[in-house]
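Subject: for your reference before the review

Hello V.,

The reviewers asked for a structural picture of the protein, and I figured it would be easier to keep everything in one thread rather than splitting it across files. Below is the amino acid sequence we used in the manuscript, unchanged from the supplementary table.
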Amino acid sequence: MAIELDPNLARAYQIRGWAYAKKGNYDEARFNCTWAIWLDPKDVHAYKIRIAVCTHMGDVERALADCTEAIRLVPHDAELHGCQGQLFRKKGDYDNVIAAYTEVIRLEPKAWTAYINRAWAYEMKGEYDKVIADCTAAIRLDPKNAEMYKLRGEANRLKHEYDKAISDYTEGIRLNSRETSACDSRNNGHRIQSGREKVFAELTKAILFNSNVAYYGRGLAYHAKGDYGNAIADFTVFIDCDRYNPEGYLKRANAYRKSGDNAKADEDIAQAKKLGYKEKKD
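And here is what came back from the structure prediction:
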């Protein structure tokens, strides 16, 4: 009604755009926000709505352009810089992800999520010392967040700091006993150190959480110990949970081969090939 009475009401178009976005009608939401911006080029809220809409629609370039313009209008808006960081993340532009979250941290030093997002980008670039530094800063701000310990543990593991990695994964598990990925990562550190017996107790907990990844990890640990029977059993459960993943068949084939059952090993290799596995040629 407001638009019918006065088609120049930018605020009315913005509100209607927001309403359409809430309903999932992104085409209409985008259309209305575009009108709002055309009528009032300084309408930051309309830009924010269109950024969200374009992101949902997969138009990352348009969303980034809107984000850049909105930041020009309100350069001290940490939310916009964080949004820009997420859009750069979708593009795989890690340097700009780092730049965006560095600005968020400058504007809001206690924004622990900004440290985590920047740490993720550093990890993708292989800059593990910076990952550890950002995770440590985030942990100081929110010491009960399991994800930060997991990410720092992963960085320590990739640096071959296995004791530190295991310590971080252990704390991640303690804080969130259902974070199976942390348990799986800690398994990797244990296996590299050859302290394999510790794997079983931890992964047994993960199995209670219905994690096929835990079966896979425990299978690897059994295999490393030469316990091929239990390795085969765990890889079988992993396959039952994820029948289209060739990795389970390959690992079980190796266990069958080690245990002397070449016929079943050949069957698993054949199944892995059906799923896309290609043997490397010398």
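For the response letter, the relevant points are probably these. Residues 144-210 form a domain with the Serine Threonine Protein Phosphatase 5, Tetratricopeptide repeat fold (CATH 1.25.40.10). Residues 1-5, 179-183, 191-211 have pLDDT under 50 and may be disordered.

Happy to draft the paragraph if you're swamped.

O.
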